[in-house]
């Protein structure tokens, strides 16, 4: 096979399982809202099918094209982040979506992918400067500082955190000195903390997860219901389709908190297997990155490493939110929870990784 069959198989398994769980978790809500239990399943199935097409397209696109277009992609993404603030659709107090008719597109998802592509190109071109001079990191302050500012206006703290964490991870993997991060990461973290502390609404959201039982029918309601779902699953779960919490008890059961419904239906064993599937995908992606690095293909290696870090970080945050370890971030569980923009962008990202793998094998031949 021209690309890693284990990675392809794992991705298809995850997508199939995610689509099944969206159907299971959304039927009651879809029936009540739209009069059809299939509403969200059909939309997610469409996104999955389109995503597979985009993955295939990305897999046949030479990585050199992404390298040449990285600057334009970054500029275009920044313009989209400005556009969403002007013409975007507001949902629950946040303006994060641009309506495309058949679906709503979230530019923040594109921003994560473009961050990986731009950083991979930057590191490939300025690796020595990044390793030896602080100015190599300072050059990134303007574009990504502006990106963070625009995301915080939506507001989208989850995506901002993911992008900054991916930036940091890619720089560390490339060999940037730890001391530089004391001068960059700490000030950014301080600003984010101040933004939370200065806003009663944000502070309430952050602190409610610490003790959701203090207000189980108010601010802590969603997390309490999620924990009840996970606890009800026990060791082996109640069975596919038999969740009680999805029957309009747990808000956003098919989106941010689909992991809790999965835990209720498949239990602790199912949760461990799902976490293992995510770790397996990460392992295969990093193996592709290491193979590119051995062949001195730094841009391609950083592409794979960046996608892997982003994929696993977002999965860990979503699972952590469901388990009450982190405050709600509004981040999807990759290829699992409902969300068309996330599916499409992750599909392109993994198409690029598969292309890196194909080029590794082609060069070896």
How would you describe what is shown here?
This protein has 365 residues and is mainly α. The protein has one domain (69-335). The protein is 73% helix and 3% strand. It has a three-stranded antiparallel β-sheet, with helices on one face. β1 (89-91) and β2 (94-99) form a beta hairpin. The longest helix is centred in the last third of the chain and has 37 residues, at 258-294. The chain is globular, with a radius of gyration of 20 Å. The mean pLDDT is 89.
Secondary-structure blueprint of this entry?
Layout: H1 5-34, H2 39-59, H3 63-87, E1 89-91, E2 94-99, E3 104-105, H4 107-132, H5 135-138, H6 141-153, H7 157-174, H8 178-197, H9 200-208, H10 221-233, H11 258-294, H12 298-322, H13 340-364
Antiparallel strand pairs: 1-2, 2-3
Helix pairs in contact: 1-2, 1-11, 2-13, 3-4, 3-6, 4-7, 4-12, 4-13, 6-7, 7-8, 7-12, 10-11, 11-12, 11-13, 12-13
């Amino acid at each position: 096979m021209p690309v890693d069959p284990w990675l392809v198989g794992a991705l298809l398994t995850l997508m199939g399982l995610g689509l099944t769980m969206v159907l299971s978790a959304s039927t009651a809500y879809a029936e009540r809202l739209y009069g059809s239990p299939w509403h969200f399943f059909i939309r997610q199935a469409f996104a999955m099918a389109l995503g597979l097409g985009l993955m295939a397209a990305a897999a046949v696109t030479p990585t050199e094209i992404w390298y040449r277009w990285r600057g334009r992609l970054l500029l275009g993404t920044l313009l989209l982040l400005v556009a969403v603030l002007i013409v975007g659709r507001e949902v629950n107090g946040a303006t994060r979506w641009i309506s495309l008719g058949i679906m709503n597109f979230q530019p923040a998802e594109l921003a994560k992918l473009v961050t990986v592509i731009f950083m991979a190109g930057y590191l490939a071109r300025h690796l020595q400067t990044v390793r030896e001079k602080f100015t190599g990191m300072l050059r990134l302050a303007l574009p990504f500082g502006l990106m963070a500012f625009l995301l915080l206006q939506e507001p989208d703290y989850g995506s901002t955190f993911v992008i900054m964490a991916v930036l940091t991870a890619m720089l560390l993997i490339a060999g940037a000195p730890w001391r530089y991060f004391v001068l960059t990461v700490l000030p950014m973290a301080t600003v984010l903390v101040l933004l939370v502390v200065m806003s009663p609404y944000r502070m309430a959201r952050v602190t409610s997860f610490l003790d959701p039982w203090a207000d189980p029918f108010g601010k802590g309601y969603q997390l309490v219901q999620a924990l009840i779902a996970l606890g009800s699953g026990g060791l082996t779960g109640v069975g596919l389709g038999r969740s009680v919490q999805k029957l309009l008890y747990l808000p956003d059961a098919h989106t941010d908190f689909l992991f809790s419904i999965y835990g209720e239906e498949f239990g602790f064993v199912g949760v461990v297997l799902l976490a293992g599937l995510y770790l397996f995908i990460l392992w295969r992606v990093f193996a592709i990155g290491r193979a590119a690095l051995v062949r001195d293909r730094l841009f391609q290696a950083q592409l794979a490493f960046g996608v892997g870090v982003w994929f696993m970080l977002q999965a860990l945050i979503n699972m952590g939110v469901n388990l009450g370890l982190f405050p709600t971030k509004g981040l999807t569980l990759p290829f699992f929870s409902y969300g068309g923009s996330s599916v499409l962008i992750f599909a392109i990202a993994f198409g690029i990784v598969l292309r890196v793998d194909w080029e590794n094998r082609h060069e070896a031949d």
